Amino acid sequence: MIEFKSVKKIYTGGIMNTCALDDVSFSIDEKEFVSFVGHSGAGKSTILKMIYAEEKPSSGEVLFNGEDITHIKPKGMPLHRRRIGTVFQDYKLLQKKTVFENVAFALEVSGYPNSEIRKSVPQILEIVGLSNKAENYPHEISGGEKQRVAIARALVHRPALIIADEPTGNLDPISAWGIIQLLMKINKLGTTVVLATHDKEVVNNIKRRVITLDQGRIIRDHSKGRYAI
User: Fold this and answer.
1) 54: enclosing H helix or E strand
2) Does the predicted TM-score (pTM) go above 0.90?
3) How crowded is residue 70: how many other Cβ atoms within 10 Å of its Cβ?
4) What pLDDT does 83 receive?
5) What Å distances lie between residue 63 and 2, 28, 57, 68, 75, CA to CA?
6) How many C-alpha atoms does 218 have within 13 Å on its Cβ side?
7) Helices of type H across the chain
8) In angstroms, rounded to a whole number, what is the distance separating the alpha carbons of residues 140 and 137?
């Protein structure tokens, strides 16, 4: 599904250039669950941004289902991003919309008809365990529940891939593990999951593939890895 071929990313500007990725190559198959780990600044978020085409490599190729996404034209970007659901540490919920409306909004902006929205949103809320919170506003639910709303919003397009960038960073250990279990459930339903995290306990408990980054380079890639830096 995803392939990086000798990818280098250099950020220019300021006093000196910064090399965020240095000759990075890897591939991720459909239905895999892969965790990227490494210290802050190791290159994890840069890789995720390249997958959903927010950043382009300075050199090398980034392929999604065999297509070099570094050459996607602006008019093709919405279609590419609908194939990917994104989840971030800070939820990015609309505070004046209910849980139902937050999830529905992702479909509304893509032009889905009301009939499809009324059908899809309750199904997704059931998957993430929030059917009883549909009419609540973000300030009325916990941090873990807010992240579940964010995952529901990412999932409502039925994407082939979910990208989660530090999704447990603001959560207590119990809530964090609940979010990881939800991502594992989504993965078992057939969606590829790519996770970037600092959470050692989460990675060690998942027991799935781990790619370790250090100063923009891959230093370890284990099929059933542990958090080791």
Assistant:
1) none
2) yes
3) 16
4) 92
5) 6, 10, 12, 4, 18
6) 18
7) 44-51, 77-82, 99-108, 114-127, 143-155, 173-188, 200-206
8) 5
